Amino acid sequence: MRRLGWFxxxxxxxLAAVPASxxxxxxxxxxxxxxxxxxxxxxxxxxxxxxxxxxxxxKQVESGKARPKKGTKDSLLSGLYTFRGGAYRAIARxxxxxxxxxxxxxxxxxxxxxxxxxxxxxxxQPHAYLNRGSSWAELIVHDRAIADFKEALRIDxxxxxxxxxxxxxxxxxxxxxxxxxxxxxxIALQPDPADLALAFFxxxxxxxxKEDYALAIEDYTAAMRYGPxxxxxxxxxGRAWRDKGDPGRAMADFExxxxxxxxxxxxxxxxxxxxxxxxxxxxxxxxxxxxxxxAERQEAERQEAARKEAAALEAARKEAARAEDARKRAExxxxxxxEAARKEAxxxxxxxQRAEAAEAARIEAERAEAARKEAARRQAAEEAARAEAARKEAxxxxAERQEAERQEAARRREAQEEAQRAEAARKEAxxxxAERQEAERQEAARRKAAEEKAVRERxxxxxxVIGNQDYQKPLxxxxxxxxxxxxxxxxxxxxxxKVFLHTDLKHAEMEEALARxxxxxxxxxxxxxxxxxxxxxxxxxxxxxLAPVDGVVDAEKRVAKFVDLQSVxxxxxxxxxxxxxIIDACRNNPxxxxxxxxxxxxxxxxxxxxxxLKRPELxxxxxxxMLVAFATLPDxxxxxxxxxxxxxxxxxxxxxxxxxxxxxRLFRRVREEVVVATGGLQVPELWDRVNRDEExxxxxxx
Length: 702
Prior knowledge:
The protein has 22 helices and 11 strands. The chain is α/β, with parallel strands linked by helices.
């Protein structure tokens, strides 16, 4: 969010508790430094202060202490969330400029959450769409970025920022025709100078990628006419001059770029590249100058040799009387001429060979460039093939889920029919055994009470069960999480839990299932909420993650599309009842910074053999209880198992049906059994914040 103009001042003017400077349309210094000024070393500090001020303003508006002077409360809150999201995005861009990609991605995600809230509160303002689209573009999610920019243009068809940003995304996707069209619209709308400079820079980059060097130079020059001569623009125009065949102007632009002060790692990297290009151009110019001087020197030597030869001939003619001596000198002169002619022929042949070598080098360079372009084309085709395979896999998983739901419906119908047959048999028994009528009436009353109790318990006891097994590379697939999840789901249903069962969830599906479960657990009548997860788990930079089947680990061991376990704990925190998390995950980290080797006698649910999760932070201050059971200790390895279930899940299924066994004692028995089953290789651990006076039983005593 680089500029919002009058909209910022109007929103700040609506707040009752803002400083007097804001009420007189003077921009807050932290807002100016965070959202409008060029980024520098003080940007993040200013943005953090500004976020605090916006948070205070949001609290005042939501509490009713500050009311808008015009407009609605929702439109005011929408603007405030847009401002805070812009501040998060400014910090993210500063981290990205310093090549801190993980922090940048996390802050862009926080910014997108704020822009989502701003859109929900007031979908008529284009600013939230513009800023959210910019964050999606920074995260290289092009389709969502394009959708947001087009929505902003639907609201404001002549918005130059939207055309500028849309052109930038088309450029990044290689859609040059669309990019040039959008950037041309942005320039034609005559935005403020800074945005106009950015539009010319973006279009110049498209021309440079298309190898239209003259047009690229023209646009880069226009960008510096409307904005400052920055490092990136000077370096880009220098490359265009170089590729156009004007090394002198290219070196001038590279030298100008190197004289500017680099404010971040990205600018320093651009300067390093410009320095290397400048050095190469200088070395080539020096070689050409040396060749020219060598040719001049050889020509002077040849002319001097010719002059001496003429003088020798003249002397020979004058000394004709001294025939013998003249003859010998003439023969010597002839030999010298022949030697000079031989050397000249050798020089000409050497020059011809150098010219042939240069031509061969040029042909080889053209062949290498053609090979590079062909490799890029093949890579794009492979990416398209992988995308199609992922689409087919998603269709297969949906079909499996629908079949499982159909089978579950059939099972329920069979159970209902069985209940109807049992009721008919009971009535027939009453008719045939009149003497036992009173006893059967009492039995019916007992059954009715049990059924009513089960119905009441199903409204008070809910569970979310996830088993992720078929992982995509580089994560290894497992053998038992689906069996584990189905076994836990069936057992909890038998214990009067309302169960939500999912298997092999992708990131978006897993986040959606967790969000729906957290909403259901907030109901006042819910006394117990159980979350079970079987699959891979990792720790990365001090954060615990659960792995969806499409979790990404790149070559530098950075994670993406993983679920933050701490956020799951926070979402399930409640002021009433008990919340139980059962994590049967490997708890090993594929991207950590402190890898250690450990024995692997059994197949484990680890992604790599490195240290596991840290101890989670359990919530404090709420009235409800929280109990988290892990399949293994920190730094331990959770075994996947050689049977139908992992050792941890098998022990849980064995003891959870024991009547009168309190939850804390239940997990102690599970730990003892897992230790014995794995020969001490796996030791489960239980972390809790539970009032010992409030006991919970999965199955009450008979």
